[in-house]
Amino acid sequence: MILTTTNNIEGFKITEYKGIVSGTSSEIKTKFSFKNDKNMEIIEDIMSEAKEQAFQKLQTNASKLKANAVVGISVDIETVSGSYFFVSVTGTAVSVA
What does CATH list as the number for 2-96? Predict the structure, then answer.
């Protein structure tokens, strides 16, 4: 599946718009502060995992619509009360040829 933040894919033609799809990671609680490099590395790893979860769900939802690409993807990282966060991705599922 092709995933892109752009509204089109060079070398491909969008043949059908399937609909808006999204994916959200599980809510993650962090106890770490950004005060030292070790904690920053841990937080970066946790955020990368959350982003991967969100993109996997986005692809699953696009596949359910029989799409082979998602265009116009936006990524949003939300924090709640300073210690919980989640990643949400949204885009348009399309068929390309």
Answer: 3.30.110.70
